[in-house]
Amino acid sequence: MSDDAHLKEVKIDGGIAYDGGFLKIHKDRVRLPNGAITHREYIRHPGAVAILPVLDDGRILVERQFRYPNEQVFIEFPAGKIDEGEDHLECAKRELEEETGYTATEWHFVTTIHNAIAYSDEHLDLYLARGLKPGPAKLDEGEFVECITATLDELLDWVRSGRITDVKTIIGTLWLDKLHRGDWKLD
């Protein structure tokens, strides 16, 4: 790996501009590689997990959920915020059961993605879940989710057509396709 000093920005000072119940927005003054001074505003996020749940018949479990900032219902993989100090796999297991009612007997770490690198440090750890067993969902108060299933070909078509635009779901679908074809293997 090469030396990246010619690309790095250095924090001079700054702090929290907004401290919300879920997100913290920071505003820092930074020195650019050419010596100029500017500001950077960014969101600190605790991180999240997303689950790629594959049923025994090969169908894939996804959710339909209204997302307020975009004022529309999205098709997406089950996902949720990692609680402070929580093991990421345990978070994935918890979120799958809470949102869908399903538990899984087989879990595999897939990858970590950074979904908004220009303005947030949020990352999502993606997990493949198999050996799914149904049960009752345990949705949080104020959470409304509709679970549906789709084939891999349907998900790929929904990505291609723009019906699925959620980045974690697009990336997860592409991973499922590569794994299904045998092009990629999990460690």
From TrEMBL:
The keyword Transferase does not apply. Belongs to the Nudix hydrolase family. NudK subfamily. This is GDP-mannose pyrophosphatase. GO terms for molecular function: hydrolase activity. It comes from the Bacteria. PROSITE patterns: NUDIX (PS51462), NUDIX_BOX (PS00893). It comes from Pseudoduganella albidiflava. One of its GO terms (biological process) is nucleoside phosphate metabolic process. Keywords: Hydrolase. GO terms for cellular component: cytosol. Its cofactor is Mg(2+). It catalyses: GDP-alpha-D-mannose + H2O = alpha-D-mannose 1-phosphate + GMP + 2 H(+). Residues 43-172 form the Nudix hydrolase domain.
